[in-house]
Write a structure and sequence with these properties.
There is one protein chain. By secondary structure, the chain is an all-alpha fold. About 85% of the residues lie in helices and about 0% in strands. It has three helices and no strands. α2 packs antiparallel against α3. The longest helix has about 40 residues.
Length: about 100
């Protein structure tokens, strides 16, 4: 199982963002390329984790509404969203390996 330290990822993104904002950032193109690539990779991971987390919360909300109302449309919506989430998790897993 892969665990993400989002606080560490966010700190790294913030640090790299500050480095990239410096006037002399591109004075060393090789180092600048490494920093900007790392920034982009970690920012993408954070964006994906945020999106996945939102989808999980949406599924939970649908299931709560199903429990409260008995309306099977909420159950169906949760099921469809879960299928989509599983597909996106599989894709994400392949990206980070």
């Amino acid at each position: 199982m892969i665990h993400f330290d989002t606080a560490s990822l966010e700190a790294s993104v913030k640090k790299n963002s500050q480095l990239m904002a410096a006037d002399d950032f591109w004075d060393n193109p090789k180092e600048a390329t490494i920093i900007s690539r790392e920034y982009n990779e970690k920012e993408d991971i954070l964006d994906t984790l945020s999106s996945l987390n939102k989808q999980i919360n949406d599924i939970q909300d649908c299931l709560v509404l199903f429990d409260e109302t008995g309306d099977f449309e909420f159950h169906e919506l949760a099921d469809n969203n879960l299928t989509k989430l599983c597909s996106e998790l599989d894709s994400f897993k392949l990206e980070i390996l």
